[in-house]
Amino acid sequence: MPSLPSEPPVAEVLLRCGLTTYEFVRWLGPARNGELVLARRRFQESFGGWSIIKRPSPRGSEEARRRLIEEARVTSQLHHPNLPVAVQLAGPAELPHLVLEHVPGYRLEALLEAAEKARQPLSEALACYVVAEVAEALHHAHTLVDEHGRELGIVHRDVTPHNILLGLQGEVKLLEFGAAWSRLSGRVMTEGGAVQGSLAYAAPELVHRQGLDGRADLFSLGIVLLQLLTGRHLFAGAERFDASQRRGHAPDRQATQETARELAERIRRYSVAELEPATRAVPAALRPLVHQALAPERQERLPSCAAFAAALRQHLSDTEQPCGRQEALLELLTLRYVAGRVELGEAPDTAVLERPLSTPGPRSAPRAMAGHRAARFRGAPRRR
Fold it and tell me: Is 246 exposed, middle or buried (0-12, 13-18, 19+ CB in 10 A)?
């Protein structure tokens, strides 16, 4: 029998910043312009919590390294409760490390997959709450000015379910500014005709390579709202293409390029005539708002993400559907519980009915979840 080691293995040190040391815990996967790592933060010998470190990939390009530095310049100026805190940019110039706060939770993409597995829709209240929170974060970015009062004109360009996090305290965070456009001096210029960010969620003006403003992000967020309410993307199959691109499941480069060209052409040709069939499953009271968010011409959309958030919160108030952190957490826990039971072979309806009744929540939660159980699933999201 092998003897146990007398001491724990020495942790790999990723970064040293004065008296603070960041130790490797585990690799979290690829990200735009780099990769993500979970790190243990220590102040000398004391545990100081967890951090996320974004660093260049081993085989990353020089442009990706420069874009990572630009991302740090952008995120360091953002201060909003629905955006993760950028702690610092450290390390040598050839290997920059962007240190971000760690927020435990689930990406919206995973929740859509859980909803499909459990055959239970996300509630209308949760969809409105999450999208309103993200919209307010985007408005903060869109209206940010530098230290001289000059507008930075930040456009996220990558608003997708993968980049929206629902935390374990019910909070909502918009992640990943690696594809953001801004008026920062010395920014990295986009070469060629490639679309920065996710093509599957791109606004028509982005594909047409027209000037950008916050209404491009509003369009992307409108697609996210449509998915949360109906389980379907505005452009059928686009979410699968997005997932394959991000996860590297596209061995045939020529086929991938052809799919991208076809999707880009669909977005260019997108017209108001496609809105009605695409939004048929949206609740009637929300349909006009979704139409405004997804208008092909940006001048026909809502004027700002702040207006989008206000309209969603007004809808929740008018329909007496309270939803905040506590309600969001209750639905998150219920969804994960039901999905887990279904994965073990239980029927979805039985799993819902047998969920723990002692789950803490506000007085209005049982009513909300009763409606959630009775809701008809309006088309399952395609698995990614």
Answer: buried
Q: In the chain, which ranges are continuous DSSP H helix?
A: 62-75, 108-118, 124-142, 204-207, 214-230, 238-247, 253-269, 275-278, 287-293, 305-318, 325-343, 348-353, 365-374
Range list for CATH 3.30.200.20 in the chain? 13-101
181 has pLDDT over 80: yes
CATH 1.10.510.10 domain residues, the chain = 105-318
What is the CATH superfamily name and number for domain 105-318? Transferase(Phosphotransferase) domain 1 (1.10.510.10)
pTM (two decimals): 0.86
Side by side, the strands of the sheet bearing 97-101 are 13-17, 20-31, 34-43, 46-55, 97-101, 86-90
**Structure-block tokens of residue 300:** 């026909």
Which class is domain 13-101? alpha beta
Task: Kindly report, residue by residue over 30-88, the tens digit of the pLDDT.
Answer: 898 899 999 999 998 799 999 999 999 888 788 889 999 999 999 999 999 999 999 99
DSSP labels for 42-85?
A: EETTEEEEEEEEEE--TT--HHHHHHHHHHHHHHTT---TTS--
Instruction: Look at residue 313 in the predicted model and tell me its pLDDT.
Output: 98
Which range, of 235-239, 287-291, 347-351, 358-362, averages the lowest pLDDT?
A: 358-362
Q: What's the confidence (pLDDT) of residue 340?
A: 83
What does the alpha-carbon distance between residue 259 and residue 150 come to, in Å, rounded to a whole number? Answer: 40
CA dihedral 263, 266, 268, 270 (to 10 degrees): -140
- Enumerate residues 6+ apart whose C-beta is below 8 A from 229: 122, 124, 127, 281, 282, 283, 286, 290, 378
